[in-house]
Amino acid sequence: MPLPVLLVIAHGSRDPRHAATVHALVRRVRSLRPDVRVETGFLDFNVPSVQGVLESLAAQGVRDVVALPLLLTRAFHAKADIPAVLADAPPRLRIRQAEVLGPSPLLLSALERRLYEAGLAPADKSSTGVVLASAGSSDPEAIAVIAHIAREWRHTGWCAVRPAFASASLPRTEDAVRELRELGCARVAVAPYVLAPGFLPDRIARGAADADVLADVLGPAPEVARLLLERYAAAHLPVPLAALGA
């Protein structure tokens, strides 16, 4: 039995950097599992659309699809937008929606990778305060998850970790940077908890103006690519997980 197609569902953006970063991540996923067909669909702004990809797959005779939301929290898009789009898929397709990416230890590893790439060293952890800067959400569940991640990450050796949000919720990145300064951290770093560049990540970057270090977005980090494959394998598939290399 052929393995299910992995359909990575991204939000989309008018910013061309967004789609370029998503495609780079998908290329890395394909390189890790060349035996799995991986497609990309966008909810808005970019092509191909999710609906267009699903219709194309059905026309090609594909039966099984794992739809993986390229999202870090279970907010509105994961709970409403994506299920609605999948509900309109051609009836011949058997679609399983995988879990969103976060939270996961692999994402914390990717965040630290980006901080070290930006100039920090592992020896700096105990004297560095980190702002975990999320895009933000009006969904209380998503906000609670970000706060929980910040608390858990603090226990890995950082001076302090504070959550911040670029929209919908407070505090903003600049406020969290100021709080860490007042707390007495020798240096302050901002770690964007976002997958691709765009309007809100740019707002995070502006809020990091007074920080010592600003990390890059998670993008096609190896840990993120591995996490996509973990979510794919963990989805309730009509094939044994052993067939997926799990």
TrEMBL record:
Gene3D superfamilies: 3.40.50.1400. It holds the Pfam family CbiX. The keyword Metal-binding applies. InterPro entries: CbiX-like (IPR002762), Sirohydro_Cobaltochel/CbiX (IPR050963). The keyword Lyase applies. Keywords: Lyase, Metal-binding. GO terms for molecular function: lyase activity; metal ion binding. This is Sirohydrochlorin chelatase.
